[in-house]
Amino acid sequence: MKKIAIDKGLDHLKQELQKRGYQVEAADEITGGISAYIYNDTASDENDARKSALKKIVTAADKAESSYLLIRAGDKNVEEIVDIIEQRLYSPLF
């Protein structure tokens, strides 16, 4: 089972990914290695919390000596996100 970290506020994606069998945790509560980090790209007052969550994820990935995908939720639907996770391919960055 693939573990996915996700920003708070993306509950609709979290629920859909869980229905499809993924283990999904809030980014700021992540434990252990992950396959992907899905982040919300909107500017908000939660910027410091997002940086803290990303730092925790990077630290966890470094300890597990694994790599993971950073996926910008943006205007992607759950099908597009699942394809990215399964194919481990995502571009462009911007």
Which terms summarize this structure?
4 strands; 4-stranded parallel beta sheet; 3 helices; globular; 94 residues; alpha/beta
Architecture overview:
The protein has 94 residues and is of the alpha/beta class. The protein has one domain (3-87). The chain is built from three helices and four strands; from the N terminus they run βαββαβα. It has helices at residues 11-19, 47-64, 78-87, and strands spanning 3-6, 23-26, 36-39, 69-72. The protein has a four-stranded parallel sheet with strand order 2-1-3-4, with helices on one face. The model has no long low-confidence stretch (mean pLDDT 77).
Number of domains: 1
The main pleated sheet reads as: 4 strands, parallel
Query: Helical segment tally?
Result: 3
**Radius of gyration, whole Å:** 12 Å
Element-level helix/strand string = EHEEHEH
In short:
The longest helix is centred in the middle third of the chain and has 18 residues, at 47-64. This protein is α/β, with parallel strands linked by helices and 94 residues long. The model has no long low-confidence stretch (mean pLDDT 77).
SSE layout and pairings?
Layout: E1 3-6, H1 11-19, E2 23-26, E3 36-39, H2 47-64, E4 69-72, H3 78-87
Parallel strand pairs: 1-2, 1-3, 3-4
